[in-house]
Amino acid sequence: MAPVAMFLFALFLFVFVTHVMAFIMSFGMEKPKEEYVNPYRLVPRKEAESYKRYERQMYNDSLRNKKRKN
Fold first, then answer.
1. Is the pTM of this model over 0.90?
2. Could you give the CA distance from residue 61 to residue 55 in angstroms, rounded to a whole number?
3. Cα dihedral sign for 36, 37, 38, 44?
4. Side-chain half-sphere of 47: how many Cα atoms within 13 Å?
5. Of all helices (H) and strands (E), which one includes residue 62?
């Protein structure tokens, strides 16, 4: 039982130490500010405006088609 316990302890120690090393190294990996992209702004404003124009055009076309059918 002792060798199994020693192996499990060594495995735990290895995983713990590697996680601590990765955590410490992550402080040096900061992105430059100019490369930052806001993840919550999914659609840039210009594209959103053109899409609104597209939706409005589709709606107007559907109204014209309804008038033609009547």
1. no
2. 10
3. positive
4. 4
5. helix 45-69
Buried b (16+ CB within 10 A) or exposed e, 10-38: eeeeeeeeeeeeeeeeeeeeeeeeeeeee
Q: What angle do CA 13, 14, 19 make, to 5 degrees?
A: 100
- Residue 18 identity: T
What domain range is 56 assigned to?
2-69
Q: Which pLDDT band holds residue 13 (cuts at 50, 70, 90)? A: very high
User: Token match 């060594």: residue?
Assistant: 10
Q: Which amino acid is at 33?
A: K
User: Over the stretch 14-55, which tens digit does the pLDDT of each residue have?
Assistant: 999 999 999 999 888 876 777 777 777 666 667 777 888 888
Number of domains forming the structure of the chain: 1
